Amino acid sequence: MHVPRKRFTDFAMVRKEIADETDRQTGHGKGISSVPIHLSIFSPNVVNLTLIDLPGLTKVAVEGQPESIVQEIENMVRAFIEKPNCIILAVSPANQDLATSDAIKISREVDPKGERTFGVLTKIDLMDKGTDAVDILEGRAYRLQFPWIGVVNRSQQDINKSVDMIAARRRERDYFANTPEYKHLAHRMGSEHLAKSLSKHLESVIKSRIPGLQSLITKTVAELETELTRLGKPIANDAGGKLYTIMEICRMFDGIYKEHLDGVRPGGEKIYHVFDNQFPVAIKRLQFDKQLSMENVRKLITEADGYQPHLIAPEQGYRRLIESCLVSIRGPAEAAVDTVHGILKELVHKAINETHFPTLRVEVGNAAFESLERMRDESKKNTLKLVDMETSYLTVDFFRKLPQDVEKGGNPSHSIFDRYNDSYLRRIGTTVLAYVNMVSSTLRNSIPKSIVYCQVREAKRSLLDHFFTELGAREIRQLSKLLDEDPAVMERRTNLAKRLELYRSAQAEIDAVAWSK
């Protein structure tokens, strides 16, 4: 792959290119590199197989190698063979003790059940006279889940003499067929049998992985499609296309904003917290009982009477006392309107962050804020009207139901100035407090309704109406300015589209294989 347009037909040149690329990557010493050299071989005489040729495990660094080379090689080998889809070829020389084989040791560590390990025995032809590898090859000396396979490779002398692989394979077949110790095993020995066994095993592994692969690819395709949808389609060149794109983004923002308010996404619950907690607590903090202390009641009653004391009941005094209490509810009412306004603005920030056009994000945000401010002003006006209504007209039935002095056996001819004594004033304060509490209870319910009607409901219905009206009058140059997409987002969309195409192609191929099986 480092020379993608070059094709090789001579394996001597392939060997040379591998050696040259190794030197380019590691220098002319005996170092290693984790950068693989990719080589694809096309031939009617080879099986479908991907082989990763790792450096041999070593125990000591030789001249020209760093002391860390031992650990570096082991780490590199582990990085590949730990992968669950990897088939491990544990290659060990027959003329050495298998108990000390590094390949078998590390394979057992990462694949303790031997479900993906093939044992390969080399240098069988170089064993001492009088010894053989039959016990190993028949699985008596060291059993693996798959049978051991013996191979006879070219010697260094063969390589130096440029003995080709066809001749080497023929010599290998002759060796196993004509050596008495291995004749009965010849049908499952040799490099050709190893390649076929690996290819067959790989095919069975792939078949078993197909359902999992299908599930993984389907999930990945769905994730890529979701992200591409979030990023939006590429920008059109004409004014109509640009306007459509902007409207679609605005509609998406509007939908997300409504989801925050309706509880699909978090944030809307804060508004309920204002009505259920903050607003009632603020009214409670007004402490009407303290406003209706004996001193305040006496002061307001006498002020309302003026130069002439009241004759029957201090009606003007009652009105002033009630009004002084109810007017103080305006503060918590305004605060509730402002708090809900702040929450609605915060939700705009959350919803607009999913729009990836910076200028459009700012414009839509500003338009939404302007609408929310208009809604807040209208809400504040209507909410304060509710309080003013209560102060401007009292509920007469409440006072009609109160017991009168005569009914209680009082003496109506009693001196009018006795009406200013403490018990009389206390009864007035109690009556006013009961009325104010009744009105407060009513306002605790009606003010949230007014706020929701004027702010929350309107925000869901017409948050961007003014922006849409103004948008239609813009020229293509102004529309283009709104769609100044971040180059990183454009690149991300292109890469995602390419990945999605690859995954869909893989999905179609795997589905075809699955159905054919």
UniProtKB/TrEMBL annotation:
Key word Transcription present: no
GO CC terms in record: cytoplasm
Gene3D superfamilies referenced in this protein's UniProt entry, alphabetically: Dynamin, middle domain, P-loop containing nucleotide triphosphate hydrolases
Keywords: GTP-binding, Nucleotide-binding
Molecular functions (GO terms): GTP binding; GTPase activity
Keyword Nucleotide-binding applies: yes
One Pfam family hit: Dynamin_M
Signal sequence segment: none
Domain GED: 425-517
SUPFAM superfamilies xrefs: P-loop containing nucleoside triphosphate hydrolases
Protein known as: Dynamin-type G domain-containing protein
Limits of the Dynamin-type G domain: 1-211
Protein species of origin: Triticum aestivum
